[in-house]
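ok here's Transcription elongation factor GreA/GreB C-terminal domain-containing protein:
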Amino acid sequence: MKYGSLVLEESEFLAIKKHLENNLSIEDYAHKNVLEILAQNMAMAMVLNTADIPFDIVTINSTIKVTGASGVHQTFKIVPPEQNDVKQHKISVISSLGASIIGRAVGDRISFGLPGEIMSLVIEKVNQPNTANKTTTKVQSTTKEKIH
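and the structure:
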């Protein structure tokens, strides 16, 4: 991980935490797996104010470009659960992919999926909302940004 741990924006951290607390009794294996990933990620996350989040961190409503092991590129947006729409490339933060990518940075490699169906992706580009169209790509991010 580029910053040594996941980096989450404070209000997003609280929203995800609330979702986890409200869904403790889910019986479905896939959803339990995602909730466990989110809980583990949140336990090791660095929580920052919005103004302190580096531009290359995946946040809710960020548009992300990833590259798979086969070299295939995909672009999608991480959204709150109620906005999930795979046909429009909107991936819920509480999906396997969303839970694995939230809080990560450009250049990070992620693995997601159920056992036996694990996929590996590299984050190539992040475009956060409300950042005046500033984007960070793997090519541009040759120096590490300091987090205060």
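+1. Residues 97 and 112 are 6 Å apart (CA to CA).
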